[in-house]
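Reopening: structure tokens for the NAP complex, inputs below.
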Amino acid sequence: MPPQTVNRQWLLARRPEGQVVVDDFRRYDAPLPRPDLAAGEILVRNLMFGFDPAQRGWMDDVASYMPPIGIDEPVRGSAVARVIASANPAYPEGAMVRGLFGWQDFAVAARAGEADPVPIAPGVAPEEALGVLGAASLTAYVGMLDVGRLGAGDCVLVSGAAGAVGSIAVQVARLHGARVIGIAGGPEKCRWLIEDYGADAVIDYHNEDIRARLRTLAPGGIDLFFDNVGGATLEAGIAHIGRFGRIILCGAIAGYNDERPAPGPRNLMRLISQRAEMRGFILLDHLDRVPMAMNQLGQWVRGGDIRYRADIQYGFEAVPETFLRLFSGASQGKQLLRIDGTE
Ligand SMILES: NC(=O)c1ccc[n+]([C@@H]2O[C@H](COP(=O)([O-])OP(=O)(O)OC[C@H]3O[C@@H](n4cnc5c(N)ncnc54)[C@H](OP(=O)(O)O)[C@@H]3O)[C@@H](O)[C@H]2O)c1
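Re-run output (same inputs, fresh job):
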């Protein structure tokens, strides 16, 4: 490959109105980043992008746990990258790192507190660093165990169960002796849930009525509902929450592309009669648990106790279409993209 003369970028061209579309993004060839690094900075070359539904929220002009992505800025997103120049001894030249390096070939990164680049251990592939050993799995782990206080014998419901977070949440619950019901879209994803991830029962929300199925599958009520979807799915879970049940709000992907927030849930009274609780969480508040969770997840992966899927698309030009796969249900596991022209 001839040396690259520009820094390819995908910029946020405008704020999406409702459903995010490819035209919300713009391809731009920026100059290569300056070679002179300030103390503490590193220059990285991105090799693989990881896509997260939360990126859709960062595109809105709404204050959240992260500032909105600016118009004409490269879209903020995770990547695995190679350090190609370093003024920071914690990240030597040649090391592999994971970080929020954005939709571009090259990025200059500095220590930035919570968004510090994470060194990747030798032998860990980029798809593992962004996938089963990445933020989605850590979210599932702390959400299920620390926030959800999973107990052996719990009847657990997981929505978005075939996705990156959900598939690990299902398996963490199973490995702790829970009975797990997963909700996913379509027979193929429901089959993975049973055969690969070890769910005890599944609900195909494209073809089945969630409430009716829950009446059959969990007549005693749900002890712990790990919700990635929100909307009507959350309402169905609330309707079937058991006495002293816990509802953990991890995500609400069904509403990320709504132009206006949908009303509801309309049945919060059920939390009172069931003495149940509902709590949101963000992984960033649990970073002290990450080393332990990574260690445990690594052991499970190496021991074959946890299975996972990575959906790897290819080529820098395909970045926006790949992001859209998260919202159509096309993604077949953790959504990734290998960047062309890299090692
Ligand atoms: N709280 C935190 O710290 C934290 C951290 C990471 C992620 N999250 C949240 O966790 C959730 C899952 O993230 P992920 O990375 O694992 O994504 P993902 O599940 O890998 O990808 C998206 C999947 O969501 C499902 N989906 C899309 N639109 C839907 C809709 N309208 N209704 C129901 N399901 C829909 C699709 O699966 P089907 O084909 O089964 O519909 C799709 O494949 C997201 O809501 C995300 O924002 C939270």
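The CA atoms of residues 23 and 132 lie 31 Å apart. The longest strand covers residues 42-50. Marking as resolved unless the reporter disagrees.
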